[in-house]
Amino acid sequence: MISLISQYWQNYMYTDGYGFSGLAVTLWLLVISIVLGFLLAIPLAIARVSSNRWISRPVWLYTYVFRGTPLYVQLLMCYTGIYSLQFVHEHVLLDTFFRNAMNCTLLAFVLNECAYATEIFAGAVKSTGAGEIEAGIAYGMSRFKLYTRIILPSALRRSLPSYSNEVILMLHATTLAFTTTVPDILKVTRDVNSATYMSFQAYGLAAVLYATVVFGLIWAFRKLETRWLAYLAPRGH
């Protein structure tokens, strides 16, 4: 077991052009996917609930496609499908971007995460209490202030439980990164397994690492829910 841990640590510290360990690469994929997906999902969620079909329909189509197809297929499309197109080779920036496995992996993860987050936030926006909106209108708020001061803060707080589950699922989805040669936890684990032939111990150690990160995420989201959803808790008399 000690030799396995030593081998695992050596493979953890091996780099493939990124200079990160397997755990760091996994966390990097998760953080970038979540942050960019979150930032893109907010305006898309507003567009998704718009009464203007020319605005809401394209967003609906985007979320439908990315939630209706496997992430692995999306990853392969970004990694090999797009790069096979002729105009990508002819454009220097596109050729450089899609030649990099990390870029392709992040693109697929961000687009997938954004699609799910958009629907989560859009559902929370739709369920905003009519009284809250009417109060903002009574104060003479513009549509922009109504969204930034009432609707979005309320919707984002109420979507925390659902969004926390999506973040955990995104962590699990990062295991697909090894198929594009990105050295995440699973890629390192497979290398250790190939070197030691101790499959149970190698994958068991990887499972412990993933579970540790998940418990950390659950703890962080529970803290946020306790603070930001306190007003929904039953009040004692």
Outline the fold blueprint.
Layout: H1 2-12, H2 22-48, H3 53-68, H4 71-81, H5 86-90, H6 92-99, H7 101-126, H8 130-138, H9 143-158, H10 160-173, H11 185-196, H12 199-228
Membrane topology: Multi-pass membrane protein
Domain ABC transmembrane type-1: 23-218
Protein name: Histidine/lysine/arginine/ornithine transport system permease protein HisM
Plain-language structure description:
The protein has 237 residues and is mainly α. It has a single domain (2-231), classed as MetI-like (MetI-like fold). It is 78% helix and 0% strand. Helix 7 (101-126) crosses helix 9. The longest helix is centred in the last third of the chain and has 30 residues, at 199-228. Mean pLDDT is 86; it is low at 12-20. Belongs to the binding-protein-dependent transport system permease family. HisMQ subfamily.
**Computed Rg:** 21 Å
Biggest sheet details:
none
Reported by name, the CATH topology is: MetI-like fold
Distance between the termini: 56 Å
What shape does the CA trace take? flat
| Tally of discrete structural domains | 1
Uncertain parts: 12-20
Structural class: mainly alpha
How many helices in DSSP terms? 12
What helical percentage do the residues reach?
over 70%
Total strand count, please?
0
Provide a concise account of the structure shown.
The chain crosses the membrane at residues 20-47, 198-221. With 237 residues, the chain is mainly α.
Any key phrases for this structure?
flat, mainly alpha, 12 helices, MetI-like fold
